[in-house]
Amino acid sequence: MRLLIIADTHLPVRARRLPEEVWQEAGRADVVIHAGDWVDLATLDALQEHSRRLVGVYGNNDGPALRARLPEVARVDLGGVRLAVVHETGAASGREARCDRMIDDADVLVFGHSHIPWDSVTGAGMRLLNPGSPTDRRRQPHHTYLTARIADGGLGEVELHRLPPRAHRSR
Fold it and tell me: What InterPro entries does its record include (predicted)?
């Protein structure tokens, strides 16, 4: 099973559209995961139409229309992998221990908010993934997103993708 993992798209505030590369990955993915801060409803609608399956949550910048359609925390079983999605996990310092207390029923926790790519494992063995942002890099050197594979009941390959400059202006 192929996953596309994105967050913090902030459309149309930080960019007009998602990069073409992200749309292509969405078309190849079995599941698209968005960890919040969509900002506009049009992005949710477009990803739902373009994806085989979409799992998303709302973020702190998402208004009432998005909050009405998305949960604060999403939990799904994907090929035997218990996955949770949330927008914010707090400061980087102490994140692993905090997430173990916050989410005790997941193998993988996908989060956003910081716009900083993250890949670590908690003391309890939960994998923490943040894809960064494909449209708003803030102080990061690149716009980013993640792809991952699930096979044989486990999370396999996770790859951070760096988008070329100006890619966030396409489509």
Answer: Calcineurin-like_PHP_lpxH, Metallo-depent_PP-like, Phosphodiesterase_MJ0936/Vps29
Whether the pTM exceeds 0.70: the reply is yes
Nearest by Cα to 72 from 90, 92, 56: 56
CA distance 132 to 17: 16
- What's the structural domain count of the chain? 1
pLDDT over threshold 80, residue 170: no
Q: What are phi and psi of 50, to 5 degrees?
A: -90, -15
Please give the DSSP secondary-structure letter assigned to residue 164: P
CA angle 24, 54, 124 (to 5 degrees): 110
Residue 130 has pLDDT above 50, yes or no: yes
- 169 in any annotated domain: no
Classify residue 171: in a domain, yes or no: no
Token pair 């992998």 in the structure block, residue: 81
Give the mean pLDDT of the chain: 94
Do residues 137 and 16 make contact, with C-beta atoms less than 8 angstroms apart? no
- Encoding tokens for residue 71? 């949960």
Structural domain including 116 reads 2-164
